[in-house]
Amino acid sequence: MALLSRFIVAAFALAATVQGAPQELGQPGQPSSDPCARIGGKKWVAPSEVRACFTSVRVNETVKANILDVINKTLNFHTSTNYQIRAPQPFTSDVRVNLPTELERIKRQFYRSEYDFHVDLSRTLKRTNDGHAAWTFACYDSLFVNYVPTPLSLLTSPNGTQNVHISPEAFNVSSAEFPDQMDVWQNALPGRLNGQLETVGVDVLYGKPANTLTQI
């Protein structure tokens, strides 16, 4: 159990160092007080740096009003808006959001950044649990992508028990896809696991070869 506890701590330490990679790469920028300029053109940046960039953009009230106006007009064609205000049984606990009221709240609310406005709008529409009602903003949703070197899998042991583990193939996949980033992830591991990312997915977690487990 002590070994497993140390492993769990190691997994969280790795998660804290997840890197963001911009999908379009430019030339490295010059040092700047602008948080977006500081990460411009870089292949790997810390999530905290990406957030600093995103939250540095102030809300343009004209753009905000236009977005809400378009969404309100679009919802006039969304037949389930009234249903979602108070869904009948057995969905009363799953769907209960008054979109017109929520959009009016968002219209009046002050946001420190455009990113905060985007997050509120996105989460509000997600509360409908309706795949046809969603808000995405490419400036925030697809500019950077997060990668975790320790993906999780549900594994079944020979006796039929199932548990969530780091995928046995994680190290090989990460090494092949992100060879220039492995040293960062390796060095993020604490104590005697430092530099031993390959053992995290097999020896440290299972204490046995990965081929004794079946991935499902």
From TrEMBL:
Residues 1-20 form the signal peptide. It comes from the Eukaryota. Keywords: Signal. The keyword Signal applies. This is Uncharacterized protein. It comes from Candolleomyces eurysporus.
